Amino acid sequence: MEITSLNKAFEQKRSGSATLGTFEEQNWSSFDQWGLPALKHEEWKYTRIRTLFKEGMLVDGAVSSLSEETIHQHFLPGELAANAVVFVNGIYQSALSHYTAGTDQLIVKSLETAAGDEDADFVKKHLGHSQQYHKDGINALNGAFAAGGVFIRAKKGKQVVDPVVIYHFSDSTTGFRFSQPRILVHAEAASELQILETYIRIGSEESLTNEVIEICAETDAHVHYVKLQNEGTGASHTGTTHIRQLGRCTTHAVTITLSGMLVRNNLNMIMEAANSESHMYGLYLLNGKTLADNHTIVDNQMPNCLSNELYKGIMDEESTGVFNGKIFVRQDAQKTNAYQSNKNILIGNQSSANTKPQLEIFADDVKCSHGCTVGKLDENALFYLKARGIPDDKAKALLLHAFAVDVLDQIKSDAIRAYADQLISERLSYSE
Amino acid sequence: MAEEQEDILEQVTTSEYKYGFVTAIEADEAPKGLTEDTVRFISAKKNEPEWLLEYRLKSYRQWLKMEEPQWPNVTYPKIDFQDIIYYSAPKQKISPKSLDEIDPELRKTFEKLGISLDEQKRISGVAVDAVMDSISVATTFKEELSKVGVIFCSMSEAVQEHPELVKKYLGSVVPATDNYFSALNAAVFSDGSFCYIPKGVRCPMELSTYFRINAANTGQFERTLIVAEEGSYVSYLEGCTAPQRDENQLHAAVVELVAMEKAEIKYSTVQNWYPGDKEGKGGIYNFVTKRGICAGDHAKISWTQVETGSSVTWKYPSVILKGDYSIGEFYSVAVTNNFQQADTGTKMVHLGKNTRSRIVSKGISAGKSQNSYRGLVSVSKNADNARNFSQCDSMLLGDKCGAHTFPYIEVKNNSAVVEHEATTSKIGEDQIFYCNQRGMDTETAVALIINGFAKEVMNQLPMEFAVEAQKLLAISLEGSVG
Q1: What's the pLDDT score for residue B216?
Q2: What is the dihedral of CA A158, A160, A161, A163, to 10 degrees?
Q3: How many beta carbons lie within 10 A of that of residue A4, not counting itself?
Q4: Is residue B481 part of a domain?
Q5: pLDDT tens digits for A139-191?
Q6: pLDDT surpassing 50 at residue B11
């Protein structure tokens, strides 16, 4: 696939850092080799990504017209505004970002800077690990434009109290915007870090964000990650969240998808140390023609680990929900407990759900289970509420909200949970 | 105790395949390799009508254009399709009128397998259409069946005597273009069973076929077609054992079931092809396409399978639920040992309204084997109130084997209710301890637990088969299962 603006953008930019320069070159040639995944690609069976790429799309490097004021308008209130990492069109903007957490706790700098200072070795070693799990053009394409990314480090033994909120702005006022943010996070030993990623599209044209975030957690670290997608119907998204447990630790990810045109989330938990714990929760609440595709991988490599996964979906109107959850239990990962559950409710007459829970187990002393359901709202519960004088739409909203709360409750930060709950409540109290 | 368990597993892995023997009968063979001439040779040998030859040639040309599937979770050396003999028939001068006329060598083979024809005929009341290599050598109880109008004969006989039925239904459920191996089968199928149950008839006995692979280097391409007319019922049994071989053999069968309104077909399989030795050498490649269609309302198709053999299995008995209120069922026990690989499961395609399906799959892996469940439950836009329940459980014996599940669920109707659950575990030490405490040795305990694990499926087998299935489980996991 040849897109002139893409080629031109790659030709024009040259990263000053040798590490990043080589990394980008390698990714660009991988992208050249693999191309964009077609429906024939098993991992992209339900999601047609190729048609999103258009000639003339605005590729990053182009100057943004967004003013500081516009950006600040979209900051979330209260403690969620404390640490703001701002990306505009996939490029990290240090001038627009700010942090209340001191540099003794939290370091945020551009990936380019990190590749040249005391974090250089770390960047060199860990950047691009996700590609081992995603041998497709999408991941490589992001890697080819990695230099605009950001590096975040939570310092050893420190708790970053307020969540680090990463704002991804896409300026699509003048045309189809293609942004490719890249993030590398290092949670040092015994640190605690909460991350919220949120996406804002400004302008009436369509947009596509192709993101890769790689998080490395060391011994005794606690990482809570939340991805909140409510970008509107014109916005598409392909993103990979790749979480590695380098030492014994606990990681936690919650993905909430409320709107979009085509949304594809890859979430990987690579459990490389014994006695670790990982939790993955997801909620997709869809309407219109939205397609949300969640692909998750849990890779249990070492013994005595626990992983738990719960994804819930509500599909209204003509929306489609896709869930593909892979659990690998490698031969050394004895005594693994791995659980997975995916529950879907179809409301819309034209809605559909495709789900594929997948277990691949190579160790014998394990307890693994998965379950998935597709169904409608419980008639009896609905009748019960209506018999008590609650109108039909309210009763439905109540039941759906209760269905969604299981996932919402898993968000550790009160501020983030309250914000997400507010968005969901607004969506559910629909009037028909 | 762990040691003891290892001993048992050791015994399991070292047990030899009991049914490995070769019957020395002269065979009438086609030359090695596959060309249009081979297809014409087979067709001519069987004295087939023009339309069937055309069908075969069309399928062959289609096959040339297709590629061998790479997606199953199995690995095996590439098959050289030119190194296979596509037609091999035991030489017999005239077709036998009674069992006494059958080659005594041939009959001994069946006796070794414990399915002696006369015994079957006298005692068990089961009609046996014994398939030795590719040609049907004897059909018993045919007369009794024909009294009620049931046609049960070999496929080549059906082509001669009931061409209109064969022409109507052959390839209607599994088209030649369906997949690589079904295309191959359609081009070179040698023989198989044909069964037709007329309207309103309840087939008075269980029908069964025994498949055997006998001559060296002979791929076996069976074709089975069962048609159940309105309101009829038939229970069909299929069992396989194959002699020990060093070279890999290919088995690419196609089974088609057609159930009309209110008809019911119950298809049971016990599969015990040669699984290869404990180094993973030899064994049968079992690449089978099985599919049934509930063409009318209230029809029901039920697949039950016990898979213990073959070095590589690739098999997904499916049901297309086209009629309203139709029912599809799939019960499976798959046991893999040593270097066996199984990628098996089912497809339930809900098209009609108020259709129901149920899937119960039990996988047991031992040695260095890989056992995969791969299934599809699809609910189309118009399949209102479709209901599915799937359960697939895996048990691992030993730490070098693998168990995998790949369930695809695609729902396009908001009134459907689909459930899927799967678990993977091993035999708990506490369970064995509990049994030991009560005076059972570990071997008996393992047997008890495995039997309990597979019971839900075993219960679905007809009486005649349940005994044999238990025997096969015992052989496959010898030492741990009684």
Answers
A1: 45
A2: -160
A3: 11
A4: no
A5: 999 999 998 899 999 999 999 999 999 999 999 888 899 999 999 999 999 99
A6: yes
Which residues in chain A have Cβ-Cβ distances shorter than 8 Å to B425?
366-368
User: What ipTM is given for this predicted complex?
Assistant: 0.84
**pLDDT of res. B19:** 56
Cα separation, A63 vs A44, in Å, equals 32
User: Of B86-95, B317-326, B420-429, which range is least confident?
Assistant: B86-95
Give me the pLDDT at residue A62, please: 52
CA distance A233 to chain B (A): 21
Other CB atoms within 10 A of residue A190 CB: 18
Chain A residues whose CB is inside 8 A of the B405 CB are 357-359, 370
Question: B403: which chain A residues are within 8 Å (Cβ-Cβ)?
Answer: 359, 361
A319 touches chain B (CB under 8 A): no
More confident residue, B80 or A228: A228
For residue A373, give the chain B residue with the closest CA. B419
Nearest to B409 among A349, A356, A368 (CB): A356
Which of A320, A349, A364 to mutate to probe the B interface, most B CBs <10 Å? A364
| Selected residue of A316, A329, A365, A373 to mutate for chain B interface (largest B Cβ count, 10 A) | A373
Distance CA B200, CA A379 (A): 39
Max Cα-Cα span within chain B: 70
Q: Please, are residues B226 and B267 in contact by the beta-carbon 8 Å criterion?
A: yes
Q: Which residues contact B258 (CB under 8 A, 6 or more apart)?
A: B169, B172, B173, B225, B226, B227, B228, B292, B293, B295
Range of the domain at B128: 2-476
What is the token pair recorded at B339? 């270097």
Query: Do the beta carbons of residue B4 and residue B89 sit within 8 Å?
Result: no
Q: Nearest by CB to B414, from A331, A351, A359: name it.
A: A351
Per-residue model confidence (pLDDT) at position B204: 82
CB contact under 8 A, B408 and A354: yes
Length of chain A: 432
Burial annotation A95-132 (CB, 10 A radius, 16+ → b, else e)? ebbebebeeebbbbbbbbbbbbeebeebbbebbbebbe
**Average pLDDT, rounded, for chain B:** 80
Check whether A285 has a pLDDT greater than 90.
yes
* Residue A317 amino acid letter: E
The minimum CA-CA distance between A345 and chain B, rounded to whole Å, is 8
- Give residue A15's pLDDT: 66
Q: Is A377 on the interface with B (CB under 8 A)?
A: no
Whether residue A17 has pLDDT greater than 90:
no
Q: Which residue of chain B comes nearest to A363, CA vs CA?
A: B399
Residue of B nearest to A360 (CA): B404
Q: Which of A347, A353, A361 sits opposite B396 (nearest CB)?
A: A361
Domain contains B210: yes
- The total domain count for chain B is 1
Q: Is residue B18 part of a domain?
A: yes
- In the structure, what pLDDT confidence band is assigned to residue A284 with cuts at 50, 70 and 90? very high
- Contact at 8 Å (CB) between A120 and A114? yes
The band of A42, judged by pLDDT with boundaries at 50, 70 and 90, is confident
Q: Calculate how close chain A gets to B348, using CA atoms only, in Å.
A: 14
Residues of B in contact with A365 (CB under 8 A): 399, 426
Q: Which residue has the higher pLDDT, B246 or B153?
A: B153
User: Which of B397, B411, B419 to mutate to test binding with chain A, by most A CBs within 10 Å of its CB?
Assistant: B411
Confidence of residue B355 (pLDDT cuts 50, 70, 90): very high
Q: Does B423 touch chain A (CB under 8 A)?
A: yes
The DSSP line for B450-466 is HHHHHHHHHTTS-HHHH
pLDDT tens, position by position, B200-218: 999 887 777 655 454 444 4
Whether B482 maps to a domain, the answer reads no
